[in-house]
Structures are given as structure tokens and as C-alpha cells.
Amino acid sequence: MLTIQGPVERGRAPRQVDVPDGHSAAFGGCGCDSCAFDIRLPGAVAPDFRGELDADRTTWWVTNTGDREPLLVADVDHPDETVAVRPGERVPFAFDMALIRPSTGPLSVTVFATLARSRRAAARPCPGLDPVAVPHLDRTSRYYAVLAELCGTGPMPTSAGIAARLGMSPRAVDAHIDYLIDKLGIPAPAIRSTGWKRTALVAHVRRAGAA
């Protein structure tokens, strides 16, 4: 199962598309604005930034459908792990979360993957989470491990603290929190303080557990 998220635009929620196992979805932009994409990007910014994603149980695939430029696929948890996918090439990946971007230009597409891993231990359950009230959270995923850290006892952990314990970057932790905020439909408060997303996420989960 994949979730593809388009670029974040100021004042607008990014478009997301779910791709079940065995299915595919296309992203990109074009000069004619008539080509079919599940995630459409502004063609004038990156006219050759096009690709197709295929979902599988244990891997997902990127096909570069552009004509000239490679697609750069980076593991968000380990940003140094970047793979270039050349035009016409189809490459498998097993990243839990990745950024796909063109070789030039500011655009990027985010991929969230829920993959079957027989040897990975499931994250400990979040003590405030009622899986009936808050469905469709994969306990083997990295975002659930972040959620479990947030729901632990003691003071609210920082993104840097969670990153150190889980072996990922603080940026990756923040990206997983952003994904959960959007997935659970948690609204932003009228007055936003530093760390409001962590606080709102834990409060939402604990309310659901008490329901």
C-alpha cells in the first residue's frame, strides 16, 4: 500500500492518493495540461518531471516516464541514500518514506509505504490508542513507531529525541507527524505554538482511546 502526496502549497492541503497493492498511480506535469495524472504538478515548473509508482506487498517501483531528466528518489529516514532513476527505467524500492524530485527545480512528491516485513517487530502499542476508534494505522510502520514514542510516559519528547531513539533524522520524524496529522484529520488550532502538532496528535489519540 502506498500513499502519494503532492507538493505542499501555502494555504492548501496537499493532494494525496492511495495506491493499493497491485495498482499504480502516475504523477507529473506537462505543457499541454491534458495528460492524465493522479497527482498533477505544474508543468511550467518542471515539464519533464513525470513518473509512475507501482505498489507491491514488499517493495514499490518507480518508473521514470519523462523524456530527458532522471528522477531522484531519496530515503527520508536516511537522506544520503538517493537513487537516480533514468528516463524509461523501472527501479524497486523498500523505503518506508521517500521524496521523489527532479534533477532541477523545487518540486517534490512524497511517498509513504506500508510494506510487509516478516522479520520486523511491531512497534509497541500506543497506550492511548483505541484501534477501533482510530482505524487503519499499521503498527509495523515507522510512523506508528513515532506515534508510540509520543504517547510514552514522561514529558513530551522532541523530534530530535525521537529521532535519536529510532535511528532516523528529526526531519523524518516531523514528516511522519505531518502524515499522521493529515491522515487522522486533526485541525490546526487558532493559535499555533511551537510543537503544537505533537501536542494535538497525542491529545487526539488519547481522546479516541477514551471514547
Computed Rg: 18 Å
- Principal-axes geometry comes out as globular
What structural category arises from helix and sheet content?
alpha+beta
- CATH-defined fold name of the largest domain: Tumour Suppressor Smad4
Helix content: 10-25%
Count the domains.
2
Number of helical elements? 4
How far apart the termini lie comes to: 28 Å
Strand/helix succession: EEEEEEEEEEEHHHH
Description:
This protein is an alpha+beta fold and 211 residues long. The protein folds into two domains: 2-113, Tumour Suppressor Smad4; 142-210, Arc Repressor Mutant, subunit A, CATH 1.10.10. It is built from four helices and eleven strands. The protein has helices at residues 142-150, 159-166, 170-183, 196-210; strands at residues 2-5, 16-19, 24-28, 39-40, 50-55, 60-64, 71-75, 82-85, 90-93, 97-102, 109-113. The strands form two sheets. The protein has a six-stranded antiparallel β-sheet, with no helix packed on it. Strands 4-3-5-6-9 form a five-stranded mixed β-sheet, with no helix packed on it. Strand 7 (71-75) and strand 8 form a beta hairpin. The chain is globular. The relative contact order is 0.13.
